[in-house]
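Deliverable D4.2, example record:
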Amino acid sequence: MKSSEVARPRIGVPVRLSSSDGPDARVGEANQLFTFIVDLLREAGARPVLLTPVSADSAGRLAIEMQRLDGVLLPGGGDINPRLYGQDPQDSLYDVNPEQDHLDMDVARATIDAGLPLLGICRGHQLLNVLYGGTLIQDMAPTTVTHNGLDPHDTGASEWAWHDVLLTAGSKTASLYGSPEGSTIKVASGHHQAVARVGEGLIVAAVADDGTVEALEDPSRWVASVQWHPEVSQLPDSDRLLPFTSFVEVCRNPTQAPPGGVQ
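Output generated by the structure prediction step:
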């Protein structure tokens, strides 16, 4: 453990940089979900550490910051600049924030370089795929599964779309939910983008019925991500807390968590 506070591993969370005061209600919703994540990490036994552009303003300073941490969680938020994965932006994008992209990318790279556990949620899932060289669907066409409760072009706050995802047996994602043998769970979904080409070195750890990539992981280290939102308030408290408690335990005892996530 790098943290001197053994009972509470220090888990870094890059802050959200877009203001909730703008015209797009989805930004305010993402900021509220960020608060939920920080609260759930604390309730699960971690000490959340908010990572800002100041703490990541140079590679050296960020490396020092990583030495103080036991893990990192990448939360949701606006769309990633498509130029980062070699595409021109489409009109469907919202809240593209270069400073946020820079912060999240730098934190993710530094976490992987430091060998720390890393978990991405929604935007964090997509960002990890881009970091590994993958691409995104900028605006999903309708499928047999509803992934967003409202028209994705609507600027109002999203309503959650609830659908099933199949967890791969033996995956880190399955272990977060206490199901190493794999299982189907119902998740809260609210996204208009998705993984297109999977990044090199990543494997798919969960899918929706329409084939949408719902979870990714790096089999060589504890890096994982989910497309859904486990933090939403509409879930029972025990269901919300479970994956965060599992991730906190990974950060507390990283040497006891093998790459596949199953003991």
